[in-house]
Design a protein that fits this description.
There is one protein chain. Residues about 60-70 have low confidence and may be disordered. This protein starts with a helix and ends with a helix. The radius of gyration is 24 Å and the shape is elongated. About 80% of the residues lie in helices and about 0% in strands. By secondary structure, the chain is mostly helical. Helix 2 (about 10-25) runs parallel beside helix 4. The protein has helices spanning about 1-5, 10-25, 30-60, 70-100, 105-150, 160-205, 215-235, 250-270. The longest helix has about 50 residues, at about 105-150.
């Protein structure tokens, strides 16, 4: 996944450059460093616990270090940045409409930049999200199977060690679910903010008088209708390489897949 992102290095540079320009334009104060530090501390803590329990069980030569656990967080922070740009665009739209300024074309230009940014985002991270979701499901199932296996051996000579291994497995399952949830929430929030543009435009269209007499009212009406048409034509969505949309509904898909497998696995274990 990391190599495939680096292959598209030029697109990634342009994408991050556009995000940086939008942040400067709207003067967005991004506080993602705090989120990054908290997430990394949590992941490092899990790695320490994971390593300690597995080394104590199978030895240091068999223990394998896991690479790329923070890829989902990078995808999440990128989606949050795009979502912040969408949100600031909507706020700017409301402020402009509140004072009935004439030129709303900047809003349309910003919307088009956001749409292009999301298209690049899907090209850069679509397959990564798809593969990471598949790996997350497989890894979660593997951890659950380990928990079921360990729970059947709780009466062995060292129950505390087995309890520690079960705890580590649950911590990694929680980490995987949290990272996937963050990506899904960030993408879903961005799309919701983008679609809210139509509601804002209709809100102010309904406030215009039925018979328009002044030039600024005609300009405002035409610009609002143009923004509505552009929003309807440029449907914004995050996709995992076209296989499914990246939003909160994907959490139900993952949860359903894991639950169905676990029910079947428990029946086989009982047999």
């Amino acid at each position: 996944a990391i190599i495939s992102v680096l292959i598209n290095g030029e697109k990634l540079k342009l994408f991050l450059h556009d995000l940086y320009e939008m942040m400067n334009k709207f003067q967005i104060d991004c506080s993602l460093k705090k989120l990054f530090i908290i997430t990394e501390i949590f992941i490092v803590s899990n790695l320490i616990l994971d390593g300690a329990f597995w080394i104590a069980t199978v030895g240091i030569y068999i223990f394998k270090y896991y690479i790329g656990r923070s890829l989902y967080f990078f995808i999440y922070t990128t989606a949050v940045s795009v979502g912040n740009h969408v949100n600031h665009t909507e706020l700017k739209l409301e402020n402009i409409l509140a004072v009935y300024q004439r030129d709303l074309r900047e809003i349309r230009r910003n919307q088009f930049v956001i749409y292009e940014s999301i298209s690049v985002y899907n090209k850069l991270f679509g397959y990564q999200i798809l593969f990471a979701t598949i790996v997350a499901i497989i890894y979660t199932l593997d951890l659950l199977m380990l928990c079921l296996t360990f729970s059947k051996n709780m009466c062995m000579d060292n129950p505390q060690q087995i309890l520690g291994l079960i705890t580590v497995c649950f911590l990694w399952m929680i980490t995987i679910f949290v990272l996937i949830s963050l990506v899904a929430y960030a993408c879903d929030r961005t799309v919701s903010e983008y679609e809210r543009t139509i509601l804002i435009c209709y809100k102010y269209l309904n406030q215009l008088p039925i018979s328009l007499k002044r030039d600024n009212e005609f300009i405002l009406q035409n610009e609002l209708l143009a923004i509505i048409e552009q929003t309807n034509r440029l449907q914004l969505k995050f996709t995992a390489a076209g296989f499914f949309n990246v939003d909160v509904t994907m959490l139900g898909f993952i949860f359903g897949s894991v639950t169905s497998y676990i029910i079947v696995a428990m029946q086989f274990i009982e047999i």
